[in-house]
Amino acid sequence: MELPKTYTPKAIEEKWYQYWLDQNFFSSVPDDREPYTIVIPPPNVTGVLHMGHMLNNTIQDVLIRRARMLGKNACWVPGTDHASIATEAKVVNLLDSQGIKKQDLSRDEFLKHAFAWKEKYGGIILEQLKKLGASCDWNRTAFTMDEGYYQDVVKVFVNLYNKGYIYRGMRLVNWDPVAKTAVSDEEVIFSQVNSKMCYVKYAMEDGNGYLTVATVRPETIMGDVAIAVHPDDERYKALVGKQVIVPIVNRKVPIITDSGIDITFGTGCLKVTPAHDMVDYEIGIKNKLPIIDVINDDGTIAPAAQAFVGLDRFVARKKAIAQLQADGLLEKLEDYSHQVGKSERTDAVIEPKLSMQWFLKMKEISEPALNAVVNGEINLIPQKFFNTYKYWMENVRDWCLSRQLWWGHRIPAWYDANGNFVVALTHEAAITAYKEKFSDLYNDAIVLKQDEDVLDTWASSWLWPISVFDGISKPDNAEINYYYPTNDLVTAPEILFFWVARMIMAGKEYRKAIPFKNVYLTGIVRDKQGRKMSKSLGNSPDPLVLIEKYGADGVRVGMLLSSPAGNDLLFDESLCEQGRNFSNKIWNAFRLVKGWETDTTATTPPAALQAIEWFKHKFSEQLNIINEHYEKYRMSDALMASYKLVWDDFCANYLEIVKPAFVDGKPLPVSSEVLAATSRYFEDILKVLHPWMPFITEELWHNLSARKERDCIIVAEWPQMPAADHLLLQDFENAFALINQIRNARNAKGISPKQALKVAHVQSARFLDVTKATIMKLANVSELIQSQMPPELSAAIVIGGSDFYISFGDQLDLLAEVSRIKEEILYNQGFLKAVQSKLANERFVQHAKPEVVAVERKKEADTISKIKSLEQTLVQLKH
């Protein structure tokens, strides 16, 4: 079968992906093999493929494909997260466009619309992942609102409530006034905002002057219940215990102390508004202060404020500033730039707000998850995230579980008309529980209504590695026992705490075991300017367009060539072009080999014999390095080592040595030995490349030789090689160094590569015993002999401790060469003088690091040797 001259990825990718599906290669069922399991970080059901997904899922696919080739039972579980806030917002917007308001629908009616939306749009990102080559077991595709998964989530809620971990209470949360729900810290995006710092005068209650407080939120003044100062602040010590009058509402509040106050911020005085700031809330709890909630759920001013009631909070801010000015209580306004949190889903400014919510006590349940990482049960890659993980886990706060939405897992709590509640799996179970708990209130006419709120999305996804194998409902089933714990998790650092840590908690709580052994944390994909890619900036390319342009293999290689774990990737489309060029290099190398004719009677040339032996050991050496990179999760290093093995060692060296000579413009036949060895090496190379470049490797695998139906590279055995002969490899390193020096000498002197040269060596060079024929072919050397005297008109070089002389004869412009060498001697003498001056400086030698001094001494020795060699060459030329 004749291969096209150029590699065209699209048709090949579609063909082989469908073939893999048809042959069920991605499917996994428990058997007697060692399992290798990855669960996908479930993308939001609202999502489409972006560059972060591309990076994350390529790494997962590389790991799963290699495990499959290592003979493991590879299982990659795909799926999506229901994404409560994001999906509800999408559905609400869709309904609005149809003239339907959410508030006009019943819960069941709204959920019908939501599930219809999910069925139409929810699988887009998974289909896109197939374009990338993701070899997930699609038969296992999970969704966090699947019926079985839903039941797992509510069972865990009931279980944790019965254990005393879950409670309901009024606490401060991140409030989204547009979505009208609490949101997690992870869903709050901070950005720099220019505001006004208001310096407000609070009159002393005793009439002795004012206390000035700096604030950027004058609209919350009506909720002030104290002024706090640092206990060591000498400016205010005499005022502690006295009272001030809150502007606008004329409320008397005390001056208290708190060691957390920043003396250098503003005036060193903090207005304490416990209902609208987390720091203030903690101070309020500590000092048993009253709490006045002055902002409604929709971001308008509440009646408790007694002023600006019903106005939007930002309108009220302007009104408050105007009134403070009118009352003579605004000392000054200053421009102030600070971080403001916005809802990731609605872009609304987050309001810290006191709210009745469900919470999970984290202190006790989080300890096993902390210990699992501290004790090394779970390995974070890279380790630089260890300290941040440890700090967060040691300072963990109770988890706000509830969200004021309809799309999600409805909280299994049931209330009577007076607010008394029980927690139970079903309405029937709730009636029974209510009868037991409130026996004095129970009667046959009692009506219990289920909580309207749903659970935080993370409260379902923390069960992901367990629930995808039905490990909650059936804790001893064959699948959970086989696949759990999973092996590797690949995810982003920003959800290390919100998702990864919580999965570890759930694993320890419900399986008494960690959910995965390694956590590979990817970096952020940024543009060339270092900016995070986003739709708003318009700096994020469409991954599908990149795949269309460069091929999936090219994009995969481009992304991972420069993406070490935990470090951000500065993406440039030229990376994908480099990946495509690599695909073309492999394609053309294969076409070269397939174009050879074979002569069964031909003998193998000496250079080819040497190359066959050398590449066997070179491949073994590099395979060992590649395997080590994989074991240490140095993914970019593993790819780069594979890249160099193919581009440099195989294409630039091996093929150049073994390819046949041309006579009258046509290649001579190669021996059967050369073709067999080259085909064998190509097969091994394709195996090493397959995890990174699945499509082109499968195509070439089937073109390399006739294959049976299921004899595919996707399930081929990962190469295993004997130990490398490092002495032989060093001999060839010396040989290639000599070849490069001869080529460089040609270029420097303008001698054609077609012109054969003679090379002599004075003393014996051991590496020539096994590389001489190779050197003569690649460097176009007609004679490579040992001689007692250097030939005339020659250039001296030193390789492997041996002196070599390249003879130029009458091909050299003698005068020009003498002039050039003199200039080079002068340059090196100047360089040597500078190095020796530095080494003569006792201060430098005594105080510099030993390795720095060693580098300078090596420079000195190398330069002295080079000058000596140049002077010898000059003497020869003059004679």
Considering the chains and any ligands shown, give keywords for the structure.
879 residues; 44% helix; 18% strand
Task: Provide a descriptive summary of the structure in words.
- The chain is built from 27 helices and 33 strands.
- It has 879 residues and is α/β, with parallel strands linked by helices.
- Strands 7, 8, 9, 10, 11, 12 and 13 form a seven-stranded mixed sheet that branches.
- Strand 7 and strand 8 (210-215) form a beta hairpin.
- Helix 16 packs across helix 17, helix 18 (573-594) runs parallel beside helix 20 (635-658) and helix 20 packs antiparallel against helix 21 (672-689).
> What sort of overall outline do the alpha carbons produce when their principal axes are compared?
globular
| SS elements, strand count | 33
Distance between the termini: 61 Å
Rg computed from alpha carbons, rounded to a whole number of angstroms: 36 Å
SSE-based structural type: alpha/beta
Percent of residues in helices: 40-55%
Determine the oligomeric state from the structure.
single chain
Poorly predicted runs: none
Strand content: 15-25%
Q: Can you summarize the main beta sheet?
A: 7 strands, mixed
Mean residue pLDDT: 93
- The helix count comes to 27
Quick overview:
44% of the residues lie in helices and 18% in strands. It is an alpha/beta fold and 879 residues long.
Helix and strand topology:
Blueprint: H1 9-22, E1 35-39, H2 51-69, E2 73-77, E3 79-80, H3 84-97, H4 107-121, H5 124-132, E4 142-143, H6 147-162, E5 166-176, E6 181-183, E7 188-204, E8 210-215, E9 226-229, E10 243-246, E11 251-257, E12 269-272, H7 278-286, H8 313-326, E13 330-343, E14 351-360, H9 363-374, E15 379-381, H10 386-394, E16 399-400, E17 402-403, E18 413-415, E19 421-423, H11 427-437, E20 449-450, E21 454-455, H12 458-461, H13 464-467, H14 478-483, E22 488-491, H15 496-510, E23 518-521, E24 525-526, H16 543-550, H17 552-560, E25 569-570, H18 573-594, E26 598-599, H19 606-631, H20 635-658, E27 662-663, E28 666-667, E29 670-671, H21 672-689, H22 694-704, H23 726-749, E30 757-761, H24 768-778, E31 781-786, E32 794-799, E33 802-807, H25 814-839, H26 842-847, H27 850-878
Parallel strand pairs: 1-2, 3-4, 9-11, 15-23, 22-23, 24-25, 26-29, 30-31
Antiparallel strand pairs: 5-6, 5-14, 7-8, 7-10, 7-13, 9-12, 10-11, 14-16, 17-21, 18-19, 18-20, 27-28, 30-33, 32-33
Helix pairs in contact: 1-22, 3-4, 9-10, 9-15, 16-17, 17-18, 18-20, 19-20, 19-21, 19-23, 19-24, 20-21, 21-22, 23-24, 25-27
